[in-house]
Amino acid sequence: MSRIVLGVAGGIAAYKACLLLRRFTEADHEVQVVPTATALSFVGETTWAALSGRPAHTSVLADAHEVSHVRLGREADLVVVAPATADLLARAASGRADDLLTNVLLTATCPVVMAPAMHTEMWLHPATQANVATLRSRGVVVLRPAEGRLTGTDSGPGRLPEPEDIEASALAALADAGAVRRMAAQDLAGKKVVISAGGTREALDPVRFVGNSSSGRMGVALARAAVQRGADVTLVAANLAIEPPAAVEVVPVVSTADLAAEMNRLAPSADVVVMAAAPADYTPVRPSATKLKKSGDAGLTVEFTQTTDVLAGLAAARRPGQVVVGFAAETAADEAELVELGTAKLARKGCQLLVLNNVSGGAVFGAADNQVLLLTASGIVGRAAGAKTSVAHAILDAACTVDERNPE
Ligand code: CTP
């Protein structure tokens, strides 16, 4: 359980902060809502108090005996501002202290995550961009606003990111100081990242398939982490068991052949290509066009043929400067055997970085946590363990520095 201050600035997207608040309280976080005076014109104090279970104050004069303008910021584990309007960003960037929220921002020593929402012109205005740059240079995580329909009929960048995406960034910031630095720095801004995730399905007949138990969680965590660091992300999604982040472009696929076609189409323009999916290695030679019927006591024999190795193809077609990342889940008795298997696979696939995990315990698929070794041609370059989000950031770090280790 963490203590979160949820700052709410005065924009129509304030109503979406109610959903964010619900997500935080349902995850057992203690949330103190600090709306600005204008925010209360959009969503009233009663709503914040009822949803958070505590009064929401806007002025430094409320509860003056508790010195809450200093206490709230000092005691918080995380401050999230959603929506952060152009005005709030300007006041925060210039260090104003004209209401309780800006006082909290000046006294907070914990990570601060801001989710902007405003009209496109206001977001793109050099004044706002300069304020965002100032805040980021001070270590504040200013999320990229989503693109799409704004209030009224206009559309463009400026929408509040979806509450689940804000929550994911907030939790990443809470979990990992390194993630805060990377998200604030936007070190992948301008990079194109293409990631495959999930498990493919090979049809036996119109209703049956051969599949595997990959949930897509690791690939989705990578997509989220890359978006949080400013990348443009496309997720080639094979039958995911979880919702992908709203901020990524999703290309759905079913079989290994579909996945190969989409990855080959998207990879040439990507800076980083990640094969986190579990494509089937075999596919039925002759899938039945009609539903297979039981016939007496006879068994069923299906002939399979090998699918293409997507990763090896992508690695062979790699252009200079591009990084191709593969995954390998191996059952190994110990780390030495794991590294031996991984080194052979890295060479066979021809990728620059291999994310290796030992699945002999069987605990990886569908789990929120993961433990990996990061392997390049020069050997182990990193290790990561813990939440898949933190592991995802470590994988992206290794992918971003792989060229320096392995010159062309
Ligand atoms: N992969 C791929 N195309 C396939 C199979 C796997 O691109 N047809 C990719 C996976 O996405 C992963 C990497 O290759 O990034 C390693 O997958 P793995 O199943 O371990 O590789 P295989 O070549 O199938 O090796 P093994 O013989 O150990 O099963």
Structure explained in plain terms:
This protein is α/β, with parallel strands linked by helices and 408 residues long. β16 (323-330), α14 and β17 (353-358) form a beta-alpha-beta unit. Helices cover 37% and strands 24% of the residues. The mean pLDDT is 93. The two termini are 47 Å apart. The chain contains 15 helices and 19 strands. α1 crosses α9 and α4 packs across α6 (100-107). An 8-stranded mixed sheet has the order 12-11-8-13-16-17-18-19, with helices on both faces. It has a 5-stranded parallel sheet with strand order 2-1-3-4-5, with helices on both faces. It has helices at 14-26, 39-42, 45-52, 68-75, 86-93, 100-107, 120-124, 126-137, 163-175, 177-185, 217-228, 256-266, 310-316, 335-349, 388-405; strands at 3-8, 30-35, 78-84, 112-116, 141-142, 146-149, 155-159, 192-198, 202-203, 209-210, 232-238, 249-253, 272-275, 282-284, 304-306, 323-330, 353-358, 369-376, 379-387. The protein binds cytidine-5'-triphosphate (CTP). Cytidine-5'-triphosphate (CTP) is lined by residues 256, 275, 277, 279, 281, 307, 309-311, 326-328, 349.
